[in-house]
């Protein structure tokens, strides 16, 4: 399966901490998380964007953006990701990669060649429930290997878990937090409903903020930085 860039967000002030970035959305994912808000990316049937035009656009934007975020979908599904990031990096941009951690080899390759400056890895749920939440066969050893590689890297990073009442409970979060203890940053992302949710709108609901703050209080001593987003 060939890698396709299916959408672009020209400027984001919030996706890459401390930087203004352009976001490139890679089509396709090996997970089918029912609360995913990017179903339009996973199932996109439009013609892919021309990479040559994207590079030309980025070159013209150097005065206005600091970085490029590569997200999806799941970018690490594709071997072409390495060449794409290398070409963008040549233009002087910082690179942020969003990943679900199922391909530790490409993560390690990118890190070994200094091609990524920030990684955000989604930890979907407690390891024993991964298949239930992702609707996929998951090699948990690969998830754990990606965590290890990222934690031992010299770059900035975050682990994050999207939380909705129907799929992720407090015990899941506590198990995740215990495994990630000592990490630089752990983000609790409260679910936000929208029309592009994979299983449809009004199927899942966010936690009340007071409940999220209670969970955060229980785990924040395990990390340098624990936030609700």
SSE blueprint and pairings:
Blueprint: E1 5-12, E2 21-26, H1 39-42, H2 51-60, E3 67-71, H3 80-90, E4 94-99, H4 104-112, E5 118-122, H5 130-134, H6 140-151, E6 156-163, H7 170-180, E7 185-190, H8 209-219, E8 225-228
Parallel strand pairs: 2-3, 3-4, 4-5, 5-6, 6-7, 7-8
Antiparallel strand pairs: 1-2
Task: Walk me through this protein's architecture.
β4 (about 95-100), α4 (about 105-110) and β5 form a beta-alpha-beta unit. The chain is globular and about 45 Å long. The protein has helices at about 40, 50-60, 80-90, 105-110, 130-135, 140-150, 170-180, 210-220; strands at about 5-10, 20-25, 65-70, 95-100, 120, 155-165, 185-190, 225-229. The protein is α/β, with parallel strands linked by helices and about 230 residues long. α4 (about 105-110) runs parallel beside α6 (about 140-150). The model has no long low-confidence stretch (mean pLDDT about 95). The chain has an eight-stranded mixed β-sheet, with helices on one face. It contains eight helices and eight strands.
């Amino acid at each position: 399966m060939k890698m396709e860039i299916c959408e672009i967000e020209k400027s984001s002030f919030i996706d890459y901490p401390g930087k203004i970035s352009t976001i490139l959305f890679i089509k396709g994912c090996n997970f089918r998380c029912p609360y995913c808000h990017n179903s339009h990316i996973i199932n996109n049937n439009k013609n892919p964007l021309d990479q040559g035009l994207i590079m030309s656009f980025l070159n013209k934007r150097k005065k206005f953006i600091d970085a490029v975020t590569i997200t999806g979908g799941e970018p690490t599904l594709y071997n072409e990701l390495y060449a794409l990031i290398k070409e963008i990096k040549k233009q002087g941009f910082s690179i942020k990669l969003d990943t679900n951690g199922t391909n530790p080899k490409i993560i390690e390759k990118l890190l070994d060649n200094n091609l990524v400056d920030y990684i955000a890895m989604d930890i979907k749920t407690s390891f024993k429930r991964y298949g239930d939440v992702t609707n996929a066969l998951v090699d948990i050893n690969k998830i754990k290997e990606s965590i290890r590689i990222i934690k031992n890297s010299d770059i900035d990073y975050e682990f994050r878990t999207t939380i909705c009442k129907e799929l992720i409970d407090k015990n899941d979060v506590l198990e995740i937090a215990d495994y990630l203890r000592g990490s630089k940053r752990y983000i609790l992302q409260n679910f936000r409903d929208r029309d592009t949710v994979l299983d449809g709108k009004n199927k899942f609901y966010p936690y009340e903020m007071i409940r999220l703050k209670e969970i955060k209080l229980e785990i924040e001593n395990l990390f340098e930085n624990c936030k609700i987003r």
